[in-house]
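PROTEIN DATA CARD
Card holder: 4'-phosphopantetheinyl transferase family protein
Chain length: 223
Origin: Dokdonella ginsengisoli
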Amino acid sequence: MQTLTADAFVRRDRPPPLGADEIHLCSMEFAPGTMPRAVADAARATLDRLLRDYAGTDRTLEIARGAHGKPYAPADTGLDFNLSHAGHHVLLAFARGQELGVDLERDERRLSLLEIARRFFAADEADALERLPAHARLPCFLQLWTRKEAVLKALGQGLNFGLDRLAFAVGADGEVGALQRIADEAGPVAQWRLCPLQPAPGLVGALAWRGAARSLQSFTLAA
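Structure generated from the sequence above:
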């Protein structure tokens, strides 16, 4: 799937109603230097408001967490959501009857990319990273990391599942391609959908779900 960039996000005060075959992806950008706690509090307030809107209620929906920390709303089990934040940016994803995961990372220098890849990624992915010129390693690493995280969050497993238990194709140019394999309990590779994201300069992200293709609607909300 083609990378979803900043120009695909439509500015709205509130998203429209969520269709049964849709996924809504909402981006929020806070002023640089905003304290992490302030970002987290504002993101939670927006999540509460959107859950009320989508559920059609004035009552705040309780948010609980699954065995591996994935949030859900017990009062409306047909409404699925996930969120991620990086610095002063936040992404929130919503769907009906479809577990999904989203991950967002900042494009920052990381000194031990190969060490991390050797420890946590599949061996062929780490090999592909090592063959790249130094300047191409960070973009490739972040593409791999965010895709893997999004899949594991959609599974409700998080890092406990193991980043090495799914692997993506990596081209000679460092571009990450399709999901090539995944552990049997996560379902067939062909069932997985991945959407790479670049909601703002300096950010890399991914949205993942296992199921039929859906219409993806993307919005920028006021922070």
